[in-house]
Design a protein that fits this description.
heterodimer, A: mainly alpha, MetI-like fold, 2 strands, B: 347 residues, alpha/beta, D-Maltodextrin-Binding Protein, domain 2, 14 helices
Chain lengths: 425, 347
């Protein structure tokens, strides 16, 4: 029997064990195993579908949006085709203008000229109204179209306009990513940095990164002693501390953020107390909110539980005997703490750090409310382009860069510290 | 068998009735809050009483994205109040459709700024210079030059975040008369001039996002003066007993919200009836006592209750200081100027 089982892939000898139904035992076992796996998989199907539908597909779609560029290819198809022949030197010839007149007349009829104008306006300010003006008159224009268009607006006689239209007539474009990295095309089509008074996203990414790192460090600094006390004080006091940590955690984010405004503003509680005590004069009130300081203070407070809870759950499992052993072997209090206790908390520090950092990088409401201008983070500009400027391509590019950055940092973390050392509880 | 058939028929009847009950009422969408409460009282309920056309209400927070989504789905919204961005963009891309101006009595019955192919003005509202009258019993700020004068009026001041209106107010503060503002802004030197003016009080400036913020900033003493929506200032005075003042003479920027019909509406005739009812001067004159936004029909301004007239942007003594927000300029320039503004403000 044991031989038959270890025979592996060889054809079953005549003496193979059979089940009561007359099926070889190995086949029957394999079937049972397969059925078990299938059941496990089927049980996991709902969550897989859920993740696919609500997470993977939207994120992939968002990432795709950052390069998608269908407006000109779809709504000015003949112009795009005619421009393929053009070498990019001087003003294109009559066939291109004739195609443009035809396309614009069709676009005006279908009311899609606005989409074309909006797309080109990202590249050249003023193109929106130029396109609208041309589209309104396109069906009344007469040959020669080249002269007719240039008469309508000088911009049609500028080779730069045509280079931009040709460049953006591809269904995919890098220009949103370029804009998200403060880069643009110059008149000759080379990639250059934008003017320094328009530079915004690269500094914002850097600011988002260091704000998040600073908040992670601050939560660790503040959270470590709290978690230590919670884990090592007698049950009753520890529980009280736990409630003090959890109560704010259960309070609405908006409530906590607006409370910080009440506390920190110039006519707020803290300034009032300082003036009352006499530390500062009434005309020397401190500006503590609606700037970077507001963002850091409020976010540190809001994210603190995400550091305290993983730390606490790890600290509770550290047996006190190690510290006693270290002490009995001659280490002083500090050495025992630093060399024996702290290394055992690193899974908690790692988990808390990753949690706080990743949450902080994407924070949006709090900086919007208390950040003023100097405390804005990249998410605020993603929201701005989603809701206000409606430049969804740029919003998607910014979001994709942010996502790639977080994934890269997580990869680094895994390389250096190891994700398997994370411990959330 | 016959019993089953009977049941089947009963079931079919229920389904048919449910479908009939689901048949859509004409749906009107506005900004919600106290504003829509007032509209309900003076427009929506009287309209249903007068015509027998049932109305369903909804409210929204603006955004062309929301309009696009509604226009692509099954018909659900018919008449919507929009801001000028949504009017211009929506009309260009076909999200909203041209109006029947005959039914409204013709274009010449309305303020020129209230006339658009796809929308008729609903209200005139203004962004104004506001301050707390209790803080300045005398020598109150009276011009945008005072807004930029941190020597005489020390303390923080607030503007709406974004280039729109900030650049107009900067030029007003630099002494450009309202009727020349957009000519100056059309030049690169004009843009530089506006940004230089803003930069001169950079350290004293904070920015607000939502219309509810300026009254709060004034009430808490956080700022000494601010740009604000005129309706919010009057509301704070009425509801909270504040003494906020509007410096109408300093100059202000006014805009128009419009009634539009969504492209996929299956009740265009009823929609036009409702818009015509709401554009009637006899009905329009009823709104300012609730909330001080100006009527758009030329005949309505004269009929407004004189007691509330000083708070209304279109009052004869106010409107001459106003600058009509140039939506075409901003539709073209909003991207590059906001990019520049954001880069400047985020430094």
């Amino acid at each position: 029997m044991a031989r038959a089982m270890t025979d592996g892939g060889h054809p079953a000898p005549a003496s193979t064990m059979m089940t009561a139904e007359g099926v070889p035992l190995k086949v029957s076992l394999r079937r049972a195993e397969r059925r078990r796996r299938l059941t496990a998989f089927l049980l996991a199907v709902p969550v897989l579908v859920f993740i696919l539908v609500t997470f993977v597909v939207p994120i992939a779609d968002m990432a795709l949006n950052s390069v998608r560029n269908p407006e000109i290819a779809t709504h000015l198809p003949e112009t795009a085709a005619a421009l393929q022949e053009w070498d990019g030197e001087g003003v294109p010839g009559e066939p291109v203008f004739a195609a443009l007149a035809k396309d614009l007349a069709a676009a005006a009829e279908a009311r899609t000229s606005g989409l074309v104008g909006a797309r080109l306006n990202y590249e050249i300010s003023g193109m929106r109204s130029t396109i609208q003006r041309a589209a309104r008159r396109a069906d009344r224009l007469e040959a020669p179209f080249r002269e007719a268009f240039i008469e309508l607006d000088d911009i049609w006689g500028d080779p730069v306009t045509w280079r931009v239209i040709k460049r953006e007539s591809h269904p995919y474009t890098p220009s949103f990513f370029l804009a998200a990295l403060d880069r643009t095309y110059d008149d000759e089509g080379n990639i250059v940095k934008v003017a320094s008074n328009q530079e915004i996203y690269v500094p914002l990414f850097m600011r988002t990164l260091w704000i998040s790192l600073a908040i992670t460090a601050l939560t660790l600094l503040l959270g470590f002693p709290i978690a230590y006390l919670m884990a090592h004080l007698p049950m009753r006091t520890g529980n009280l501390l736990m409630i003090l940590v959890l109560l704010p955690f259960w309070t609405s984010l908006l409530v906590r953020t607006t409370s910080w405004i009440v506390l920190l503003q110039q006519q707020g509680v803290i300034n009032d107390i300082l003036v009352w005590v006499g530390v500062i004069g009434d005309d020397g009130r401190l500006t503590m909110v609606h700037n970077l300081n507001g963002t850091i203070v409020a976010m540190t407070h809001i994210l603190l539980p995400f550091m305290v809870l993983p730390l606490y759950s790890v600290m509770r499992t550290i047996p006190p005997v190690y510290m006693r052993a270290a002490r009995s072997l001659g280490a002083n209090q500090w050495t025992a703490f630093w060399r024996v206790y702290v290394p055992q908390t690193t899974p908690g520090i790692g988990a808390g750090g990753v949690l706080v950092f990743i949450l902080a990088v994407g924070y949006y409401i709090t900086p919007a409310l208390v950040g003023g201008q100097s405390g804005q983070m990249i998410s605020n500009y993603i929201a701005y382009h989603m809701q206000r400027s409606l430049n969804w391509g740029l919003a998607a590019a910014l979001g994709t860069i942010l996502l790639a950055g977080v994934v890269a940092l997580y990869y680094l973390y895994n390389k250096i510290i190891g994700v398997d050392r994370l411990k959330l509880g | 068998m016959s019993v089953n058939l009977f049941r089947l028929a009963a079931l079919a009847g229920c389904v048919a009735m449910a479908t009939a009950a689901q048949a859509r009422d004409l749906t009107v969408v506005s900004w919600g809050g106290a504003y829509q409460d007032a509209q309900r009282e003076i427009y929506f309920q009287p309209f249903t009483a007068a015509t027998g056309i049932a109305l369903t209400e909804d409210s929204w927070n603006g955004g062309i994205g929301a309009l696009r989504a509604k226009a692509e789905g099954p018909a659900s919204w018919d008449v919507i109040q929009v801001e000028s961005d949504e009017l211009v963009l929506g009309c260009e891309e076909g999200t909203i459709v041209p109006l029947d101006w005959e039914a409204l009595g013709g274009e010449d019955q309305f303020l020129p700024a209230a006339v658009h192919e796809c929308g008729v003005g609903a209200i005139v509202w203004a962004t104004v210079l506001a301050y707390d009258g209790d803080k300045y019993p005398d020598n109150a700020p009276s011009s945008w030059a005072d807004f930029f004068d941190t020597e005489t009026y020390p303390g923080p001041r607030a503007l709406r975040s974004g280039a729109r209106q900030a650049l107009e107010f900067a030029l007003m503060g630099d002494g450009v008369p309202p009727d020349q503002i957009y000519d100056v802004l059309a030049t690169d030197e004009g843009i530089e001039r506006a940004f230089a003016k803003l930069d001169s009080i950079r350290d004293s400036l904070i920015f607000w996002e939502a219309g509810a913020q300026p009254p709060q900033l004034l009430a808490s003493g956080e700022v000494v003066m601010t740009s604000a929506y005129n309706g919010r200032i009057t509301a704070a005075n009425q509801d909270e007993g504040r003494n906020f003042q509007i410096a109408w003479d300093a100059g202000f920027v006014y805009q128009i919200d419009s009634w539009v019909v969504l492209g996929n509406s299956d009740k265009p005739d009823e929609a036009m009836q409702l818009i015509a009812y709401m554009s009637d001067p006899e009905n329009q004159k009823l709104l300012p006592p609730f909330i001080p936004y100006g009527p758009t029909h030329k005949d309505a301004a004269a009929k407004v209750d004189p007691a509330v007239l000083p708070n209304v942007p279109t009052a004869p003594e106010n409107i001459d200081h106003g600058l009509f927000f140039d939506r075409d300029f901003w539709v073209d320039r909003v991207e590059d100027l906001n990019a520049r503004f954001n880069a400047w403000a985020a430094q």
